[in-house]
Amino acid sequence: MSGNGPSGNGTEPRNVIIIGSGPAGLTAAIYTARAGLQPLVIEGEPSSTSDQPGGQLMLTTDVENYPGFPDGVMGPDLMQSFRVQAERFGAEFLTAKATRVELSERPFSVWVGDERRDGRSVIVSTGAQSLLLGLANEERLIGHGVSTCATCDGFFFRGQEIAVVGGGDSALEEATFLTRFAQKVYVVHRRDQLRASKIMQDRAFANERIEFLWNRRVVEILGADRLAGVTLADSRTGALSTLGVTGLFVAIGHRPNTDLFADWLDRKPNGYLITEPDSARTKIEGVFACGDVQDDYYRQAVTAAGSGCQAAIDAERWLEAQGH
Ligand code: NAP
Fold first, then answer.
1. What pLDDT is stored for residue 25 in this prediction?
2. Residue 290: half-sphere exposure toward Cβ, Cα within 13 Å
3. Can you tell me the mean pLDDT for 21-41?
4. Fewer beta carbons below 10 Å: N end or C end of the chain?
5. Are the C-beta atoms of 56 and 130 separated by less than 8 Å?
6. Relative to the CA of 296, which ligand 1 atom is closest?
């Protein structure tokens, strides 16, 4: 664990505590640090999931659509650059997970285990996680044939045969998008009925490059260094078959990391935090939210970074209005 200085436990509260360190949190850190607010970033703990420091980009390889990198950039390298930039202006990092928050009075309190940190304002940027199938090889092959983001990775599958798992709007949207690149896209769905909206279904059914594999579950992900195919099981008979695809897009939904805030902040029915329109303000004055934790629509690194900037400016102006 790192991060000394004015901790707020018994002494001066921090001006800003940022929880989460993906593109949104680190952009908020750059802006608030540069404004002289000495933010404390509780960045998460290293793990193989997307709530680790750096967020979902730590699970990707090449990022080709982040502006400013004409030759592309590796996701982890991009996040490291964000972090170094925030540190340069005085942001402090605590490599740990926030375990509890208390937002009923100011200063707000954020706990890391038994240790309490107080902040005059809090920026929530804990992100979201793509749901995964939970199969062996799945996480290891992310970035090597397995993906949870068609917008990010579709380009790498030009002319190939790939599969999308899921039967909701995300799966059909991704499948339709992926036909721009892939020669053939199989949609593997565990039932014989889609959950997706009619318009998405019609679009997918009309697309010659999409083939539906109904009543099938992916039960095995094949490949050592790269995806080599998947084993499918028929949901009704259990019969096994192999599908020799070079790409597998898992599109079975996302889960925002909002459990910590359930008692405090308003959430949409799907769990995402609610912010006021065109701002990062939540229903609690002095608590702001940015990035994927409050965005179930765009979910891009660049939009997350943009909303991190908004949160920082909102926090800065709010603190100023409070006389800090
Ligand atoms: P979703 O609607 O929850 O659909 C998830 C799909 O994945 C379902 O078909 C589900 O199967 C399947 N699934 C879940 N767990 C699975 C597992 N372990 N193995 C195999 N399949 C599994 O999620 P979503 O598609 O991400 O959509 C989320 C929300 O965003 C929805 O409200 C959607 O309308 C919205 N959205 C809108 C758009 C758009 O309008 N452009 C685009 C994307 C998302 P079952 O059907 O059998 O449960």
1. 98
2. 34
3. 98
4. N
5. yes
6. 30
Instruction: Give me the long-range contacts of 105-111 (CB less than 8 A, separation at least 24).
Output: 106/286, 107/8, 107/13, 108/17, 108/286, 108/287, 109/8, 110/17, 110/19, 110/42
- Residue 5 pLDDT grade (very low, low, confident, very high; cuts 50, 70, 90): very low
The preferred substitution site among 133, 151, 164, 169 for testing ligand 1, maximizing ligand atoms within 8 Å of CB, is: 169
pLDDT at 63: 83
In this structure, which amino acid lies at residue 142? I
Pocket of ligand 1 contains residue 256 by CB under 6 Å: no
> Buried (b) or exposed (e) across 277-303, using 16+ Cβ within 10 A?
eeebbbebebbbbbbbbbbeeebbbeb
Q: Count of CB atoms within 10 A of residue 44's CB?
A: 27
- pLDDT beyond 50 at 1: no
The DSSP result for 180-204, as a single string, is TT-SEEEEE-SSSS--S-HHHHHHH
Among protein residues, the one with the nearest Cα to ligand 1's atom 28 is: 253
Residue type, 289: A
Classify strands 92-94 and 40-42 as parallel, antiparallel or unpaired: parallel
Closest CA relative to residue 209, chosen from 154, 253, 168: 154
Structural tokens at position 147: 């993906």
Angle at 137 between CA 246 and CA 142, to 5 degrees: 60
Question: Can you read off the two tokens belonging to residue 199?
Answer: 């318009």
Q: Which residues are catalytic?
A: 149, 152-153
Burial label, 199 (beta-carbon count in 10 A; 0-12, 13-18, 19+): exposed
pLDDT > 90? residue 47: no
Q: Which run of H or E residues covers position 24?
A: helix 23-34
Sorted by where each starts, the structural domains of the chain and their CATH numbers stand as 14-130+254-321 (3.50.50.60), 146-250 (3.50.50.60)
CA of 295 to the centre of ligand 1 (A): 16
Q: What is the pLDDT of residue 49?
A: 63
